[in-house]
Amino acid sequence: MKTQNSPSKRAIAAALSLLALLPLTRGSARPATAGAEGSPISTIVRFENFGEKDGLPSHKVHSVLRAKDGRLWLGTNNGLCLREADGRFRTYGTKDGLSHPTVLGIAEDTRTGDLWLATMQGLTRMSGGKLTAFTQTNSGLPNNVVYGVSVIGDTVWAATAAGTGALDLKNNSWKIYDQSNSAMNEPWCYSVAQGDGVVYLGVWAGGVVEFDPRTGLFKAYRDPDGDFQIQLTPDSGPVVDVTSGVAYDAGILWQSTYFGLSRYDTSRATWRTWVQDKSPLLSNFINTVFAHGKVAWLATDRGASVTDGTNWVNYSVDENGRGIVRTYRPGEETQVRTMTTALADGFVTAIWADDHEAWIATSNGLSHGIFAGPSGSPAVASNP
Amino acid sequence: MKLKRVLLPASLLALVGTGATFGGFTGLRAHERLRSGLPKLALVSCTHCHQRSLKTLPWAKPRRHHDAPDGMAVSPDGKTLFIALNDRDEVVEADVASLSVKRRAKVPGGPFGLALDTAGKRLFVACRNQDTVSVIDTAGLKVVASISVGIRPTDIAYCQTPSGERLVVPNSGSNDISVLSVLPLLELTRSAAGREPYAVSVSTDGRRAHIANRMAVHDQVLSQPASEVTVLDPSTGHIVNRVELPSAHMAEGVTEVPARGWVLSSMIRVRNLVPITQVKDGWVMSTGIAITREDGEATQIPLDEANAYFSDPSGIVASPDGKRAYVASGGADVVTVLDLDRLGAWLARSGEPERSDAIENMALSYRYVSARIPTGRNPQHLALSPDGSRLFVSERLDDRVLVVDTSSLKPVGRIVLGNGGLDDPVRLGERVFTNSRYTFQGQFSCRSCHPDGHVDGLSYDFDGAGVGDNLLANRSLCGVAGTEPFKWNGKNPTLQYQDGPRFARVLMRTDQIPEPQLDQLATFITHLPPTRTLPWSRVGQPLTPSEERGRKLFFATQRTDGTPIPVGRQCQTCHRPPLFTDRLLTSVGTRGAQDTTDVFDTPHLIGVGAMAPYLHDGRAKTLEEIWTTYQRDDLHGVSSYWSKQQLNDLVEYLKTI
Amino acid sequence: MLDARYPPGSRVVLLAPPYGADTVRELSRGLVAAGDPCVSWDGRSVYFSGKSSTDADWQIYRVSAGGGRPEVVTRVPGGAMNPAVAAHGELVFSSPVPKAGTLWTTQEPAALYGQMPGEAPSRLTFGSDSAVDATVLRDGRILYVTSEARDTKHAVRHLEFFTVNNDGTEVTAYACEDGGADRIRRPRELGDGRVAFLAAPAEEPGPAGWAESVKSAAPFATRGKLFAFRSIGCRSVEPMGQGEVLACIDSNVGAGRMMIGTAKVFRVAPDATETGAPLFGDPKWDNIEAAPVAARAEPNGHTSALNLKGSYGTLLCLNVNFSSKPAAAGNLAPAAQLRIFTWEGPGKERTLGEVPVESDGSVIVQLPADTPLGLDTLDAAGHVLRHQPAALWLRPGENRACIGCHEPRNHAPQNVRPLATMHRPAHLDLNSATTGPQAPKP
Predict the structure, then answer these.
(1) Given the DSSP bridges, would you call strands B157-161 and B142-148 parallel, antiparallel or unpaired?
(2) Complex ipTM, two decimals?
């Protein structure tokens, strides 16, 4: 159910969040809308939550994307969902051509406006309101279980349970990359991300594989110690090989795993790793990661976490259902405050965010994270 | 080459000699059975395997070129008509007042679609044969710029948008739409269309482009097919809408009617799911117009009458005042004039049930058809002067452009481009191919199901001994020379037999085509070259690594692990180069529940990448499905050892044949 | 019936320009009566109905338009009438010739026959009512007059136009199903997209008729007057080319009965508002019919797919629930069974059996050929929903389909795969039929 706060409540929430975030507001070059003054991390001051009562086809939301035209798309357990301009949700299901009701990933081809959907039984293209399914039997898609999708130039990349498929949109031809012809050690791929001229593939037990389409060469980034229980060699490679997601922006590659977080600075070729016990990381169990600028949004089993690698803001739900926000800044005490609103659920599955808002998919609804405005008041964030 | 010429006959002689020595034909038959993998094969001609070179086939030989008019564009002042001559690689500039040709310009690549800029200073040309868009400076009538687009662009539209000038180009061969900026000439986006995007029309404000897609597609072979009107924002290149037109296909024309907020597209309403027990009452197909509104709602209305058909509707234009539309019917040699006021009134007073049923109501069109203008042979493209006073009709197979005074609907005269090519038997055959006079009430022509000689992507249930047991996929006529016998049952030894008595009985329901015309038709068909499936830039280029791997798989005689593949299950045995068919009946395990046989003619594979759907009844939507969904017991080639990568490689190779 | 229309002394004559009485040349020499002329497509021959003696049957004769003695081309028991010429010189005629006033009541209805040159005639129609006044359309179909079986819906028998292929297949209603004068005859396809015919309120000899037409573009919706002027007394219309019509009109007829000896031949221009001067109007001649002798485009032929050695045809109905007429007693239930019966005489129907209807309303059934067939759709309780009189037949090996029962005319099928085609057809036989009283009508 969508949570609407009264104006007075919103003012209080804004004031509280301003107080809570004061420690984070010093010395940042991020735009004012990005968060409390100076912080590179945008800060959510309030959540609006949506569930089946609001028209979502399922309370389980797996993926979220705000397209370039401003429309919000959700991949749920029961179909693809569009939030219409009037705020209502419209669902597209298998009867409309969706290859499977469970939509795990959404990617936009920003040049054509088409969406590509990763589902549990194939890849689906949404174009001009029409859904077209690509499956392992009717196309060159390597496998029907598609975990992630990305559109990079003229190529749609689909991370599947049997390799990553690359559909060349101009030639309508498929290539498959797996352990037989790439640096992957196994075919199970979870995620694809666009780097600067390269493609990053998140391989389930194979770390991150970098592919350079110009040369056709692959390079694998693997856990140096090869152990996912302990970190013998931190900050020297991926935290573990078990990759749940990869994301890239502004020269930074992020790897999410179920055993911690990794960050690769491509300009310096340096790795950093975080595990729950030794950092502010909210949970080692990270479903996926979303990169925006130099910031990573982490979808964990205990809430949403935002970090630039130095500062952290973690959003969780306490045992009473209250929203808790924890902020970390090096050399300062952790700030903890209770929010007037909370995430729809602590088990976060996907996040999309920009400088103005965040949309957080959970296993029990969708949360709209409203950022602090320039003066600390909630930014106006609504769908077109 | 010389060695081959000597060795082949020598080998044959030796073979025959061997056969004579060891039991006459018994040895020869044993050889054929061994090499074909068909243990019960009766003695057949050696040419099933030892085929002639492709170079000897009619379609590979030099042919005559003609001055057939294709796309046209009228200058803003209405005084000049530009005409694309695809077959000549030329664009013609004609003077409307004197009906004379002023200049001809060489435009490489097969100019087909034309569009002028607002001032009439630049002519944009979609060149179908070489996948380019060229810009012609109309002052000098010379090509000043050119750019590659998708495969086989067939039309082009120019518009001005808030983001600048744009060109929208449907690429019929690659099933996508290019959006170009003009200054500089760049391809901004290439979006997926329906199947065979063929014609484009842009709104006067440049806000929307509508693209008519010629082919219908279906989810399953027995589900209703639908073609698409693709709606695109020329400014961004984004697809805005895809309007489905159920059971509509062969949409070759589209036009905006700004005054009414309509987009009209010509179409054939096909009824391929209904057994062809009869032709009358539009049982096989009928023609119509799809009216698409801005909100995406579409209504299909008939162009035909209860007892007469106006087959192969193609070009369509609307008068500037929105009161009339003109539609060229290439198979009937007619331009139909629609009274849009009457049509609008009918739509306004009709409820949804009447509108959705309209296309099946063969007695409806008299309410809004105001005239039928007879034309020369095979009118396809239309153009209208900016003031709407002159209608230009490309009489393709007469090499002329008919000019009609729209106030009287009488001909003003003709712009003569060539002599009609009456001394060219191929051209005469094309006249038979494109004309519907040979079918009952003129309901369809050969072209209605074989656009450009190719497939229409549908399966039809032909009349036979029973009803509903003869579902067969349309087969391409392109590159069909030398692949006899014809039809899936292999019963037609010649094209003359297939297109003569056979079709007269099962399809046309008239007298068969007279023999002289039948011979001309067969000549035309054997001169149809295979469909090009690769971009022009790749023609003659080496195979890619993936294609090369696929080629090796196609010609494999053993599995990856070294296990031999039985001769009869090797791809190359039945699909033997150079025709990629052994012209024999073979069972590949595809007999359906209602099929009366399990052996089918081996189709040739030249151009197979564009022949979807596949298998005898069209059950396989894609090449992949042949082996992923409909393969049984390795009967259609041994595929059980292939990885998905190998299947993809094979598909990539097949698309190059 | 021809005896009344063409009494002894009736002749078929040729008029040459300037169409005066002195140009008349008799073509039916040696016959006691003749009429019903029909010109071959090449314009070289004239077929007509003739009688060699007062007691002889009417038969079809052919004579060269250039002159000579007529030769008999039919020798069928009961006589032949209404000649028409189809493609490849095939003669079409009706037989037997009923006695005057019995055409629509006779126990021996006239059927259409086709006869290729030098061959025996073959029967084309098998309905329960007479099939007469055939003409051949340019598309090759034979257009003729009949009544929709022995239906009791009209107190006075209402005649309609039907078409059939020249092998007897695809019998189909063409026009004049409802409304208008009940008696229609002598249809002729004009060159302007219309079919002209004569209409009258009653059978001849009766009140004078007039000329009407339908547009072939929508024949069921466009019945109207042929001419812009009053045409009561019109006896024949024939196309002349260029939109002109050759009409034989007794312009002295008022609202009453036809007067003998006053009909003239007119050449009527398109859009004419009056007949104008007659082409031929000699008072010594009572002109019954007039047809131009000229070559015209030969109609299309039809390639038959019949297997005349067989005994059955197959009927596919796409949706028996699709109808332009409401079901009996407003019953909205979908049909569950289709009952098929044959006609064995007035009031005597013979049920062949019932076949199940698929959930989409489709039915496929193999039925005995060359016998009149009627259909009843039944609901699950066996109540008759719609009754289709025995106006249909199948030829041996014919695969026949329809889109519904009493379906809207000139309607194309929806592009949907009928479920009934997914299995072999049911089979009903005359041997399994049960004879009984006529099924109760809805």
Answers:
(1) unpaired
(2) 0.93
